[in-house]
Design goal:
By secondary structure, this protein is an all-alpha fold. The protein is built from three helices and no strands. The protein starts with a helix and ends with a helix. The model has no long low-confidence stretch (mean pLDDT 78).
Length: 102
Amino acid sequence: MGELIPIIAIIMGCGIPITAIWAKHKQKIAEMQVSATAANTAEKAAQYASSVQALEDRVRVLERIVTDKGYDVATQIEALRDQRSVDEGSGVPLEMTRKENV
């Protein structure tokens, strides 16, 4: 039993510094993960902001179309479809699809 005491002391003497080094390493890894996550979150926020800005721009254009030119947008769309069907021979006017669905 007396022989085990020096062996245990040597193991404990080596084990404590190794544990401290391991804990410090784990802390650095955790800090790196936090900083990577923060950078990723900032990048996603910037992407969302740009897509929101693009959508707001599109809504402004649509509002301008409706308010500046009145409410004859459906007539204009129908005229464009009629032109396309004459030009390309494809496309179905809205009135034909309405009759079929009724």
